[in-house]
Amino acid sequence: MTVLLDVVGAALVVAGALFFTAGTIGLLRFPDVRTQLHALTKADTLGLGLVLGGAALIAGSWATAGILLLVWLLALGAASASAHLLARREADAAASGAPGVAMPQPAASGVATSDPAGPDASVPDAPASGAAASHTSVPEGGD
């Protein structure tokens, strides 16, 4: 019977690791903060539950299973609260027109940038003619 519990426990741990991987891929692939949070909180809390359930079966102790259940419940509460606060901050920032939570987005070159305006946002505008100005202005009366 213990061999069966160990095999089922190991299968639960592997399944939990797959859910963790799926949540991480969702975090990296989804375009906006809300879908990233959804992927992360849903997949990771289920993944943690599976990993802790597998660890409880492998441990074979009711006391250990109770402690791991408490850890999972606390993680569920923490993930829900943090996701809610981040989503609220992003929604408030979107409503006010200010940039919200700056999440790195992949650039065309494959290098991530955390500037929501883009990598060229701090470059001053070029003259309308397209040619660079060839003179500098000197303040009047300043010689």
From TrEMBL:
Alphabetically ordered keywords of this record: Membrane, Transmembrane, Transmembrane helix
GO molecular function, one term: sodium:proton antiporter activity
Membrane-crossing segments per the record: 7-30, 50-79
InterPro entries in alphabetical order: PhaG_MnhG_YufB
Segments for region (Disordered): 97-143
A Pfam family matched in the record: PhaG_MnhG_YufB
Entry keyword annotation includes GTP-binding: no
Keyword Transmembrane helix: yes
Record family assignment: Belongs to the CPA3 antiporters (TC 2.A.63) subunit G family.
The name this protein goes by in its record: Monovalent cation/H(+) antiporter subunit G
Species this chain originates from: Rothia santali
